[in-house]
């Protein structure tokens, strides 16, 4: 009943809606400023920086994944960064997140990317358990830093 | 005495050497499998996924930064991911890391990227203090997960 396919620019509304639901679920709706047009432009970019996957359940969009190319200086190769994995609340507990992860893993392999990395909220016990069941490993040492807004403007020469 | 410039494919040997020194310093030399050719190819890629900055001190390469394009699903825009910031041990405490960060911030602004993000080792107190002095903020909730090797192969359909 699950079907998976690569997203095209025409899927921008679905990707946008599920990712917005994810932001809301994580309490970050105020930070969600993206538009459907932004998503369509990213998916249509000929450089192929961004990719999306749509999971449908009996034909209805139920979840999405968005990934982009990253570069590992240690391996000297592109790696995959999984930006978002979203399953709509009414479609939870049907294996959709796992199916999305498997599909994304297949894309990584096709594209010669030997590693997928992503961020998870430390409090997201359910997500961590799913990822661990797939063989993913949490790095105990890495923390995420950001520079934005006035601080970024002040630092730029 | 510090001079900064954008790296070209010809700078691949310098970028490679300083990043390798960083890997060694962090105890991850066994994971450093990149070659100079990998770096040259990434810097020459017409998609412009990867960029580098070279800091010289009186004409001698003293430090480097490597960044790549990322995509924020929340903002719908490209953001900058700073993959590595390296200063060779003999050039420490001369403001080179700060100068590299400022140069990278300028590139982000020129390219319309409103955010720079990167990873830092939780034990890297000196690095964290520098970043905090620039106005960067550590996200207390985010952790980094990776899927690679046999687990990635097993998951891919």
- Strand content bin of chain A: 25-35%
Characterize the biggest β-sheet of chain A.
5 strands, mixed
Shape designation of chain A: globular
Gyration radius of chain A, to the nearest Å? 16 Å
Could you explain the architecture of this structure?
The structure is a homodimer of 157-residue chains. The first copy, chain A, is built from 5 helices and 7 strands, in the order E-H-H-E-E-E-H-E-H-E-E-H. In chain A, helix 1 packs across helix 2. A 5-stranded mixed sheet of chain A has the order 1-2-3-4-5. Chain A is α+β, with helices and mostly antiparallel strands and 157 residues long. The longest helix of chain A is centred in the middle third of the chain and has 15 residues, at 96-110. The interface between A and B is large, with 73 and 73 residues. Strand 7 of chain A pairs antiparallel with strand 6 of chain B.
Keyword list:
homodimer; 157 residues; alpha+beta; 34% helix; globular
